[in-house]
Amino acid sequence: MDPYAALRYKEFNIFLVVRFAMVFAWSMQFIVIEWQVYSMTKDPLSLGIIGLIEVIPAVGMALFAGHFVDQTEKRNLLVKCIMAFSVVSLGLFLISDPDLTKSLATSTILYAVYAMVFLGGVVRAFIGPTVFSLIALLVPKKIYPNAATWSSSTWQVAGVLGPTLAGFSIGWIGVHWSMCIVFGFSLLALLFLLQIPRKPILNPKLGEPVLQSLKDGLRFVFKTKAVFGALTLDMIAVLFGGAVALLPIYAQDILNVGSEGFGILRAAPAVGAAITMLGSTRFQLHKNAGRKLLLAVFAFGICIIVFGLSELFWLSVGALFLSGAVDGVSMIIRQTILQLKTPDNMRGRVASVNSIFVGSSNELGAFESGLAAKLLGTVPAVVFGGCMTLLTVGLTGWISPSFRKLDLSKDVEESEATSG
Fold this sequence. Notes:
Blueprint: H1 10-41, H2 44-60, H3 62-70, H4 74-95, H5 98-103, H6 106-135, H7 144-193, H8 210-223, H9 225-240, H10 247-254, H11 258-280, H12 289-309, H13 313-341, H14 347-376, H15 378-399, H16 401-404, H17 409-418
């Protein structure tokens, strides 16, 4: 197996630059928002509200967005998504102006930030399915697993650098100019994306009624046990294991490491995941995929519990690093399942369901963590989340032995055969 197979296609390399710039900007922006909001409110519930406000439009519009993506040319749609994100980042840059924040009430600034986050959730509903669908148009089917690995690796590397730079830039240049960096990276993504030509629409049912289209997409997901099992497992694990939403509290009030330490903590999971993903280009995770996915999520829950109980900075960093490493395994297996099991004409709708199950669970997990921290305290909330993750793995393995025995080797062989 050629570990660099997908990188031999120029358009895919350009796509990776676009993906890196967008994920870098998005992850950096989210960290800066978290820091700004908690600094203004000192209320853990406010961190959960950020996630809730973003997830409401992301989930509410997801299925419609998936239908729209399947009916639309992907490259131009992604251009529009990035332009919309640029508007959001520019708005956050203007809102965070120190002179403006001094002249307005804290509640006014807070509501303005929430409004921008809500608009970002609308953009996110479309950008996820669009990116997932575009990948399949840039490389042959036989290297979908390799392309999925490189795409996920790029996502994680950007997720390392974005939060890290956010943590340091807050201390160096403040929230306002950190938001300017975010805006600059969104423009960079747009510039590179314009170098990829438009792609054909592979859906033979153009003009299909929305309700029928949505029913077909949902029916496919729920009938395909491998897809449904992977999405459900990850959704519940991320929902209850969302300790990263409480990192501003750990950085400021428990570990006392400031914004620089916050950046390191926030980047640690992504560092672990990135290393795992880059290494996985040389290893095959599709064999015994179900068992490996269950073990990875179980290990993730253990790491979250260790982090929750730790009062030592470097032990906390290590636990988060390992949580990211095993989460990287989970992400690769899930993306491989989706790429191999999804027909071209349903990629937008399946990706939108993925956004509801997994993507939105990050924000719902942030809300759950914030609410649990408010009711139980920060440390008990994180430990509770880790325990629920372990329980989820146990129940999944017990209830669905077919998923536990899932192996993707045959699917990989068939994709290689059909692609020549």
